[in-house]
Amino acid sequence: MDGKRAVVLISGGLDSPTVLAYALDHGYKVFPLSFDYSQRHAREVQSSEKICSYYGLELKKITINLRQIGGSALTDDIEVPERGIDSIDGSVPVTYVPARNTIFISLAAAYGEVIKAGTIFIGANAIDYSGYPDCRPEFYNAMEKTLNLGTEYGIESGFKINVPLQYLTKADIVKLGRKLGVPYRLTWSCYNGREKACGRCDSCILRLKGFMEAGDFDDIEYEEYPDFYFQYLKSHGKL
Questions:
Q1: What is the DSSP letter of 198?
Q2: For residue 1, what pLDDT band results from cuts at 50, 70 and 90?
Q3: Which of 4, 15, 52, 236 is the least buried, fewest Cβ under 10 Å from its Cβ?
Q4: In CATH, what is the architecture of 2-191?
């Protein structure tokens, strides 16, 4: 039974709800977990709540204050950068939150120990992403080994970190999510937590690129669209 119980990290963006739907589709009893870490885009926590409500799941929220550490545009008084799609490369951007996924995975494992859930799902992606070091396969392989060395449950039963979107493009993720019926209208990816998504930060740009390359259209509202997506909408009679 333990092997079919899973903690699913959910942030409310494009990837993690897709992973939640994937876990459900693969027969797991899902225990969603989100974090309010005093992030600039705290609106994503509201999206997590809406998504879990949609699936009839009870969301567990953990509150930690990473602003006490800072060092990121998401947890400090640092401006969120706006750049073109061609400028997003493998370098680590200022929106990287120091050790965030290390902290999240560790807390997910602690929760998993208590509820006897041996699998931890996370929506990390190493193809279309902003260059975060804690999105790489090497990191998750190392973290899984660490959990199985340093926790009682890991020693006795074994933890598995499941990263099903690891090698998918954003377009692949959109296609998978549509197939699984993910309610993308309820999601939120923008690093700026305003009424509408900005359409200019890395997260918005990568999200819109994914929908475009999937031949699909995003369901949420934007303050403005990057030129490539504006032209895409225009060519399909959506403007």
A1: -
A2: very low
A3: 236
A4: 3-Layer(aba) Sandwich (3.40)
